[in-house]
Design brief:
176 residues; mainly beta; Lipocalin; 8-stranded antiparallel barrel; 41% strand
């Protein structure tokens, strides 16, 4: 017998039940991130306001456009979230071997917030998105609970600026 695949940290994260993809469509603001990413730790003082536009494709996958500033210029990063084994679970394929990212919508009230888990290799991040750039303390508490449930602490939880957003990028500043 082949050895069973080791359980992934996201295997035990339940996806939001009853989530319909059209509810996720539209504009979101990146409010916070819980992550052990060393780049984030080293550059947390340079975080830029970030918006995301979600478009539903073929009723099961998502086109994600992330808008953020880099060196004062607005950039658009385009990604395609493919459906995974269950509703609320997606796969983001990167370039090269070992670059896939598993995505789980952990908790969401599509009119106000979404808490989404990302796993690349053994590394997990938790992101909080809001329909507005600021969310209620109740939503922040839920987010911090989700972050702690992944073994991440307050010292690796970062909040993003609530001003200075990009709404578009010119044709030379788009990454697919």
């Amino acid at each position: 017998r082949r050895p069973s695949r080791p359980q992934s940290p996201l295997d035990k994260v339940p996806a939001q039940e009853g989530l319909s993809l059209p509810q996720l469509a539209g504009r979101w603001f990146l409010v916070g991130v819980g992550s052990r990413c060393s780049y984030l730790a080293e550059h947390s003082h340079q975080l830029e306001a970030t918006t995301v536009m979600v478009t539903v494709l073929d009723e099961q996958s998502l086109a994600i456009s992330t808008f953020r500033k880099l060196d004062g210029m607005c950039w658009e990063i385009r990604q395609h979230y493919l459906p995974a084994q269950a509703p609320g679970r997606f796969l983001l394929k990167g370039h090269g071997h070992g670059s896939k990212v598993d995505v789980v919508v952990g908790e969401a009230d599509p009119s106000t917030f979404a808490i989404i888990y990302y796993q690349k290799g053994r590394s997990v991040s938790v992101k909080l998105y809001g329909r507005t750039s600021q969310v209620s303390e109740t939503v922040t508490d839920k987010f911090e609970h989700h972050v702690r449930s992944m073994g991440l602490s307050d010292d690796v939880t970062y909040y993003f600026p609530t001003y200075g957003f990009c709404d578009s990028a010119d044709e030379f500043h788009i990454l697919d």
